[in-house]
Amino acid sequence: MARSTSKDAQALFQSLRSAYVATPSSLKIIDLYVCFAVFTAIIQVVYMAVVGSFPFNSFLSGVLSCVGTAVLAVCLRIQVNKENKEFKDLPPERAFADFVLCNLVLHLVIMNFLG
Amino acid sequence: MAAAAETSSDRTLRNAFGSVLSFFILLLIGVLAFSIRLFSVIKYESVIHEFDPYFNYRVTQFLTKNGIYDFWNWFDDRTWYPLGRVIGGTVYPGLTLTAGTLWRILNSLNIPLSVETVCVFTAPIFSAFASWATYLLTKEVKGAGAGLTAAVLLAMVPSYISRSVAGSYDNEAVAIFALIITFYLYIKTLNTGSLFYATLNAIAYFYMVCSWGGYTFIINLIPMHVLLCIVTGRYSSRLYIAYAPLVVLGTLLASLVPVVGFNAVLTSEHFASFLVFIIIHVVALVYYIKGILSAKMFKVAVTLVVSIGLVVCCAVIAVLIALVASSPTMGWSGRSLSLLDPTYASKYIPIIASVSEHQPPTWPSYFMDINVLAFLVPAGIIACFLPLSDASSFAILYIVTSVYFSGVMVRLMLVFAPAACIMSGIALSQAFDVFTRSIKFQLPGISGKSEFDAGDTSSSSVVAANDAAKPDKSEETLKERPSRKNKKKEKEQVEKASVEKASTKSKKEKRLLVLPLEASVIALLLLVFLGAFYVVHCVWAAAEAYSAPSIVLTSHSHDGLHVFDDFREAYAWLRHNTEVDDKVASWWDYGYQTTAMANRTVIVDNNTWNNTHIATVGTAMSSPEKAAWEIFNSLDVKYVLVVFGGLVGYPSDDINKFLWMVRIGGGVFPHIKEPDYLRDGQYRIDSQATPTMLNCLMYKLSYYRFVDVDGKGFDRVRQTEIGKKYIKLTHFEEVFTTHHWMVRIYKLKPPRNRIRGKTKKSKTKTSATSSSRKSVARKKNPWH
Questions:
Q1: How far is B168 from chain A (nearest CA, A)?
Q2: Has residue A79 been placed in a domain?
Q3: Which residues span the domain enclosing A49?
Q4: B417 or B7: whose pLDDT is higher?
Q5: Strand partners for B746
Q6: Which of A66, B357, B588, B665 is least enclosed, having the fewest CB within 10 Å?
Q7: What is the interface pTM, i.e. ipTM, of the complex?
């Protein structure tokens, strides 16, 4: 039983990797960016847990900035992914412009909130 | 081929014609929405109405005079004496900022309007915007025809009129517009999957948070819809784009508003959105992995992930529950709790229960406020189910939740009204669609396109002959068809089905829905009558029921029209005859008006943030004269204002509110007991009244010298003769009573020169009577 599950898991990883290798490199860059943003958010949460959340607005804006960037990047990734049929008629340039606009709003708000 | 080209060019022509027509219809709807709310200005005058609007007006005045920075830092020492109130941090600034900006723009264009005028007309302007927003929202749900119908209905729905007549300068005036536009942008994002609309959606949500506490409805309804979509297997990446950025941006923007601040992440009202935020990420990941894996491998992955995921989920839920449980009242504010448990307020918070608009509504009020829409709503719900899309499921969820909330609080009927309008708009437009189509098919004549046209013109002539307000309906049906066909085609495109198949399919559907000619003509006539009835009712409600400003009253009697302008008379007296720093005590209802109109410091006002302070005033009003004098004197009060309707029959006066003063006072100071004021559980003021009642300050101040009017002291509100006719005041003196006795102002007499022996005696007496009373007295004046 245990052996079969581990074998299954191995096969799963294998197929996951092979599937992921096939994705275009632009999407991989976005993935890296998302991972980086999430990682930064986690570091901040850990720091908050260790040191304390005193300037709460700073903590909040830091974490939400990271989470927000990650979320927006995921949205961009969804939109520029060629395999998504829903966004066939959305040119990637338009998607990127929307992404930049959304990021601008997000970081204007964060700068305002940072205090 | 040529025929196809011809039809397509014909269709584009028709589309262009339709969009021009709908533009003009929308313009007219805006004019209608604006002008139906002007009855109050025409019948009365251009004044601010009621209570809360006066506060908003005063804040707007401050904003326009001192600028935005002073506004954020405004500490108001004219209310809640001696505590004061930080206005900038405790007020929803959306309405004030909107009106202030409007005034500034107008002034920079050299249109010299006063601040008051701008404030009076803010609500009608925004109700026009709201009906346009309704058009957009319903168009996203069910096409342009339904949108136009819903916009017409919303422009004159009585429930919304009651809160947005000219002069009703309250938060709800702009908040309903913000609510609808937020929903529209959410649906738009959901339908298009564009980040641009998601950004706009977050900004609209920000405007909503700025303007009304009801924003929690949005931040709970949208997660509910997302959850519903996920559970019913309608997850799409558009849903992710519509929701995830909204939560992050919305939370950040909400915490920018001072009155919300960190509450946007700390209170339970917002937790649902975060939970769904996590869930949607998990679901998105699952769908992504499902997309790149084969079916068999996915099954393996599911078994692996589910076992790990369950553990993580349990941990997260445990942490959340611990967080929620650690905060007092489980992190819910009193008003939200009273929404979830309708009996909560009456049990624990008399101050919320005492406001009439927080009571549950009665059945007639549904008929009064939404009229025939109540019967059309179920049809609209069914129409939403017929092809169930993401947008229509949102509309259904919106109406279901808002029906519940409107059943809990009368005030929330306002949230229900737009949903009812959208549903009824859908129902009416679908019904017209079906009937006109079946007429078309049965008219004797030619096949194909000419049939279409004949049907349309005949139906429009039928409609136009009946009601001038209705021709837009037939245009809608005309317009709606191509748009819906387009939509259908879009769907079909995904399945790679041919256009011909779609057209045959829709034709088949049409054949199925054909009704007998006579039946559909009669049904059309009846629908038009229903619409006409609705219009008549709305105009009546706007003209008669909802446009009274409540600071000026009128009454028709056999010898003509009487105008009671007593409130402004009294406030003007206060303004001109008292010192600038004098403190005026009254029940909290009149606090905002006193500060705004008389510019005098008040003890409590309609903000009701400090229950103890209100209870102190309630205790003073229900105490005997001497005790009341002591309380008022310790609060530095110079004048006491009571509202008395016994002479003219004005029912919402202080004597009728008196039991709430007793209850609220007794909730904090236990020596005030409600049964002392009731004879056998009955509240009465005639000779059967209890001695406590007859000796309390409110009774004395209301009925002082009242017997001089007619010799009997007949109270026309309570329809009895008063119990104690000859009242002597020892600690108060009457200084002003208005023309119809509706407002009476008393002055506290200065303390008498004391004889040493006498004070000693009285002191020993009080200490001897009871120690509990003394502790109460200490509790009364913590600032002494």
A1: 32
A2: yes
A3: 24-114
A4: B417
A5: B640, B734
A6: B357
A7: 0.92
